[in-house]
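[step 3/7] fold_predict: job queued, chain A
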Amino acid sequence: MAEPTLGPGQYSIGSNVPGGDSAALVYGTGTANLVSNTATDTGSAAVQDQAVIGHDGMLFGVDTMPGMVITQTGFAYVAANGVSAMDSYAALSGKWNDPAIRLASGATQVLRAHYPVSNVTRRCYGRGRKIMPTYGQANQGIVPWTAQFQAADNTWYSDTEYALTLTQTPSFSGTLTPPLTPPYQLSASINYQTNTVVNAGAMPTWPVITFTGPVTNPGLLYVNTPVSIRWTGTLQVTDSLVIDTRPWARTVLLNGKGGQAGALSGNPMISLQIQPGSTVTRFTGQDYTGTSTCVVRWRSATLAIGGSV
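[step 4/7] structure written:
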């Protein structure tokens, strides 16, 4: 599956599913639901400021931000194929408040935007909330509407997902001299491979990390930083462990099943953001076959709805 390609001034809303939602609804320029204006409210920070006791001044603590609310205004009209304005609006509102999403705990939608003055398509994750029509002009073939989308965070992400595959190349030292009595104990040294993740955006972004076996105690290290994460256990050849650090997920799944967060050590998931620019990464663990992998997937991140990269 693949999501629809957007042109300038077009948007889409669909389910957040692996590979993209080919049934996502496209609206905006060239469709029967035009967009007049898009506004983003990043909300007010939850602050932990404290007044200085007995003197002027303020001590600043940790400031956290809610997810942004995106408000769009537009209007539905009679489509070129004769579909009425009412039906054009009905298609948009039905997708906006999709019951398959809003009635499923943890499920999210993807709102994609190719803003008119932008060269790229960007996306955010969340849920469609309020969508309100004004029917007073329906007899003229127009239904104005206002819609709000609650995002999981304040970030716009690149529509392109990037991936980096890390491996291990084991080498063995020492010799075996017969006669031998099993089990044979080999002295091994691991030549770890490093590679670079590049976040082209201006904001930190969240990785999705997938380990495949055979490997014991697989982990990921950000080289020359104190940041790392490790799962305690052994993955067989057919096993896959996915650590999804994104705020709307925060899951650790072994072969698609949860309950693995307690086996993690190192830094918490909120510390694994990939900073803007280049981050050198290393796949750690014990693999004497050299066939295990660590795949890091990410999208570049920014606070702007549009841009050139």
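[step 5/7] annotate
The first helix runs from residue 85 to 96.
The chain has a mean pLDDT of 92.
exit 0
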